[in-house]
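Field: sequence (string)
Field: structure_tokens (string)

Example rows 1 and 2, in order.
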Amino acid sequence: MKLILTEQQLTTLLCEEALMESMFHKGMSFSEILSAVKTLGKKGLLTASIIMNIVLMFGLNNAQKMALENVAKVEQAIENKKSCEFNADEGKWEKNPAAWSEVSNDALATVYNAVPSQCNNDVLHTASMFKLNLGDVLSQRVIAMERTFMKELGLKYGDVVYVEGTGKWDGPWQIQDTMNKRFAGMHKIDILVPRNIKTGKWNGVKISIPTSEQFKEHAKSMMAPSA
């Protein structure tokens, strides 16, 4: 992490000044400073200019400055491993922008139920033979994708994509099913929802895929296992 603090940065910190005032105060021990720095890092609020201001505010030496930078690097590395996390307080998924690459912005998304009229007689399994938890299908976050669309995007069963443009259904979903052949050639996905939900249709839905194997594995780890 290269730390360069210009005069302009010193005078235009704005929200960083508020963070400094709320997190740091004279008389703090170095261990308390490190703890506060780690907290900022976990929240993704730690910047080079904040670190430099901490150094200036407390008159830290080079060794202490290096310790702050190392904390910043560790927290950033931890954050970079995450593709997405569920924010329970807000009831929605939070996407790490660095983890996903948009591959389509014109998909049609609909919802479907695990019932014979919309699948086949074996409602317990998807086309990939993934076993569903029929009592809580949302916990498994399963979607069906049109076959040629899947091939076009280089995806296969078990891959996780990030869906945006469906309101409360936005977030990561695992591809474990495919669409009926009558939808051949369409950029279409079907979101598996509980049987009491019958309707849902969105145009211009965005589909993103993980940017690295690391993010890909993290995204898969977020999905509930088969029943």
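Row 2 begins here:
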Amino acid sequence: MLTAKKEALQDTSLPEIEPTMRHAGMWCFVAAGVLATFYLATSMYVASHRLLWFDEVFTVHMARLPDWKTLLTALSHGADSLPPLYYIVVGIFDKLFGHSEVAIRLPSTLAMVATLLITFDCARRLTDGLHGLIALALASGPLAGEGFEARSYAIYVMFAALALWVWTYTRTGEKWSAVWFGLVLFLGVSFHYYAVLLLVPFALWEVSRWKPWQPPSPKLIAGVIGVAVPAALLSHFILSFSRNFSNGFWSRPSLSELMDVYSHIFVGGLFVLALSIVWIVLANRRDKNIDLQPMQSGEAIGWLFLCIPLAGFVAAELKTNAFAVRYFLGIVPGVAVAVSCGLWRHFRNVPLISLGIFLLLATWGMVKQLQVARHPHSVESPGTRDQLSLESLLSSEGKRFFVFSDPFLFLEVQYYSKHPEECVLLLPSDFEQQKTPTNSSPDPYMHQRVELILSRYYPLKVWQPSQLREHARETALIKPAPDVLDAMKRAGFEVETRFSKPLQVGYLQ
């Protein structure tokens, strides 16, 4: 009789509960779609109004090489640092959607939006729709800037999110689940070499639970194969760039850099955390008995994503010498899912707390994105537009060559110039003496060396100081380095400052 009453109570509650749950679930999907659409639209707007910067110009030149054989040859000589598959994909988009900044950046834009949606769904399945939105909003802050940049970071992070999704929501014993996991990591490494580190959190999780009499997890075995195979296939390109530039790489590992990685990725994280804690205190005014659920494996692996920079630091110290913060953006999906799961376990009975944190994170991210969308020039390299605006005037004054000491400014101006053949990169006088950088410090001329390699495959004009002296009267020095000015004065030339603002321009007399 008690059972019958219980069933009757359950039956009468279903018509009320199910529509409410269905309505709440639909609201979360709509909100996720709105946020994804917002970041898609704003990223495409910024992409269409922002000039390409140094690294992106390399992407364009590599993607527009005449055929894949030339591309592989250029990469085998160290012309750029990314795997060939990325340039092939960018080249396809470039041809399909026209030669424009938007087309070049579109793979990153789509990957960034896909990452947000995968992270949302991963957290939603572990918790509920509201906490899935928290994961999406938390991930959007660090990743938004990658949506309007023609480099492979957004794609690499997308595979990090997909790896967590596949590991969490496919059955451990199924052969195909292991195959899919290995394939995701294979593709991740095929777009960015540091994606090999995505295996770290999953390996740590399996090792922590391993018992001597148990065979290794099929997923872990597939993951090892998934990172090892592309690394082996691409080893020629990896070693080529490493031989040329690893000793003098511009961003080298150090303990201070390691400690700063997390704050650089989650910009404003401490501020948002402080506001979230204040909100938790204010919103949780009633005493509630929290039935704390055990941590799920998906949340635990998400927290272990924090170990990726540690593993990267070890790899950089032992071999690669490369420790740029952006190489570790792969931690974002895992940390976002872990945070949302932790909030759900502690405050699922106080939805007001989770709703407030979601609104705080979403507002923070959207305001930052809108600021960039309002002023897309603020995320450009300084000086490029200034020099482009001066070209006609300098030409009218008889200057046939625009000579740059700054390799960044040179490559960007040369790409957009109406007369790219007039743009010249001037090599430093001691360039040849510093051909082999030591392990003790970064190579000050690394970017000049990369451009020299690119000049074999793309028409870039590079001068030695002696060539500058030959064409001194018809040259405008653009943002000249102090040593260049000193060298020209010692050679008997007077340097007339034609402009000091917005960009220093000098004439040789």
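free_text_note (row 2): The mean pLDDT is 88.
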